[in-house]
């Protein structure tokens, strides 16, 4: 049985790699062929496919940028791209568990093989100009793989279903704000697209990349309306009360950026307070005693802090050059703000009513 689990898990891990890598190789080959190449080296699109595969798993890259051979990095990667390995891994794991009843062993070996293959890909994809950080390939792929293979109908996850929905709703509102801003700045979007002039195939790929980066901007939008702001390069700050922005890269999605100070945007903080209040109402409805409510509040607060910290961490980093470092949000600010909002809501809707009832009872 162990030998069968090892072989089948290896087979499904290799299948998962191939299901995502082959389409990326085809796309890279088409893009390489239409763009033209003076060298005619077919290893270029193959390496590009490997880089795209690693980028979909959010594995950071170190860069050596010509002509000055300056150092750069690509650690600000599209969070939306995770959906592709997530779907592939979830499908492969279902196939594996359909043949193997020992789910825990199947998960362990499946994730082991997949992370090992990811590390091998990161090592093979290294060139003088692009160097994937292969030591981070295993942790990132393990994280995505674990989320892909978990059973979210388990009783453990049901406790956090409502908080998860509320956080997703907040994320969706951030994406909606970005979309409205893009419509409002349509002319800037058009001008930036004209500057790039990617062509039909390049334009389709570039549009897909913009969509995959939308979750990143949604997190930045939440941070902005929460009064915390975000950065887009060295010595930059974009918030309702402070605006310091230099030249922006020719990326149409960045047309959604504000063009100056907007103090009234701070009213968006009410959305974060509303989310915190709804979480507290959910706790109050689920538990009757203050002690149980406090325990549940602590668990939900820790859950929200970890989830938002991870999201903010993934929404920060470098965008190729040192001039675009750092980009995104600070990993601790947004989760700390929600944590504070949670305890403020708990003070008003849990502790204050309990104190009043105790006072009235004594009287």
Tell me the helix content. 55-70%
Secondary structure: number of strands? 9
What series of H and E elements makes up the topology? HHEEHHEHHHHHEEEHHEEEH
- Distance between the first and last residues' Cα: 70 Å
Question: How does the major sheet shape up?
Answer: 4 strands, antiparallel
Rounded to the nearest angstrom, the radius of gyration is 23 Å
Structural class comes to alpha+beta
Whole-number count of domains: 2
Mean pLDDT: 91
Total number of helices = 12
**What is the 3D form?**
flat
Q: Could you list the spans in which at least 5 consecutive residues all have pLDDT below 50?
A: none
Order of strands, widest sheet: 3-1-2-8
Strand content: 5-15%
Describe the structure.
This protein has 2 domains: 2-150, no CATH class; 158-362, no CATH class. Helices cover 66% and strands 7% of the residues. The protein contains 12 helices and 9 strands. The longest helix is centred in the N-terminal third of the chain and has 34 residues, at 2-35.
How would you summarize what this structure contains?
The protein is α+β, with helices and mostly antiparallel strands and 363 residues long. It has helices at residues 2-35, 43-56, 83-99, 103-124, 137-149, 155-158, 161-184, 186-196, 199-225, 269-286, 290-314, 333-362, and strands at 61-65, 70-74, 130-132, 231-232, 237-238, 243-244, 316-317, 319-320, 327-328.
